[in-house]
Design brief:
Belongs to the ATPase B chain family. With about 180 residues, the chain is mainly α. The chain contains 4 helices and no strands.
Length: about 180
């Protein structure tokens, strides 16, 4: 049964009871026990006030103490969190510096290897170029020598000299056979 239905039923019972006896306000103070109720309420207030006040005061103190403890714990948690955040930031900074140093060292090592490789490649290229130039110079010297000999032979060669050279060559070949 819900509360509204219960109230409605109580109201109906009260109204039916009042209809039989008559419904009205009783103005007789002694009959209504108004004085007794007023005395009981005043005694209850007089006697209960210190108890109720002390209970409420105790409750208020407990609430304030709980609030202060909660604020203290919050402050401690914030301090711990700040300390933790600073530690994490310091660790991140240290890790970043370590990583940066490792990357820098790796780049320097790779740079040194690249420089050594380029230097070696340059030396090999220079040696190859020097050898090629030497061969070209030797070929030019040989060509010039042949040209000079040919020119000298053409200018100095006559039939008598040619016969002597042929006879001399035949004699050398004949002596070896």
């Amino acid at each position: 049964m819900n509360i509204v239905e219960s109230l409605v039923q109580n109201f109906i019972l009260i109204s039916e009871h009042a209809a039989g006896n008559g419904f009205g306000i009783n103005t007789n103070i002694l009959e209504t026990n108004f004085i007794n109720i007023a005395i009981l309420v005043s005694i209850l207030v007089y006697v209960g006030k210190p108890f109720l006040s002390s209970t409420l005061q105790t409750r208020q103190e407990k609430v304030l103490t709980s609030i202060q403890e909660a604020e203290s714990k919050l402050q401690q948690a914030n301090n711990k969190q700040s300390t933790f955040v600073y530690l994490v930031i310091d660790n991140i900074k240290k890790d970043a510096i370590t990583t940066a140093n490792k990357v820098r060292d790796s780049i320097m090592e790779q740079g040194e290897l690249d420089i050594a490789r380029i230097t070696d490649t340059g030396k090999v290229s220079i040696l190859a170029t020097e050898n090629q130039i030497r061969k070209q110079i030797q070929q030019q010297i040989a060509a010039l020598a042949l040209k000079r000999v040919t020119t000298n032979l053409k200018s100095e060669m006559n039939s008598e000299l040619q016969s002597k050279i042929i006879d001399n060559s035949i004699n050398k070949l004949g002596g070896q056979l």
